[in-house]
MMS19 nucleotide excision repair protein (Pseudictyota dubia), 175 residues
Amino acid sequence: KAHIEVTTEKLLECAKCSKYEIVHTAERALENLVTSLDPLRCFQSLLPYLEISDENADDWAVPLLALRTLCKLVERVPAQALLDSLPSSLGPCLVTGMRHKAVDIRKASVFVVVEMHFVVGDGLLSRLDGLTAANAKLISIYIERHPKSGKAAVADGEGGTTREPPVVVVQQNVS
């Protein structure tokens, strides 16, 4: 195995450790790895660890760390590589992750899909086989509120209503 694959594997194994400091440090190291090395190789090295199924429902620390890392990597991966991985591996993992019993896996899966939307475009949701209407709605809400969408809403506080961010006009005094 090459150094990226071995390093990814060893850092993901740290997710099984019970000490928060070790898991957190491994997560930061993975983030540094995927933001500085070849994005396609990093992407390919993460894919095997995204397997989320009903059989391993209680052993989700490694897939969670892989999902969180993928969330940081997605913007660097070419759209075509993401699309090519959807039918066979990535799509089923994300859809399964969105119905996982652990809320952290569900959230991380949604966040990855949201980040992918900004790389792949509007057709992404239709390519995720098995996505429920509720999941599609949730993802759409997160996409709409994401800073990259340019339509980020600001919470009004009580009642959960949202409004557009205020426009600040700066006037210059010309003497």
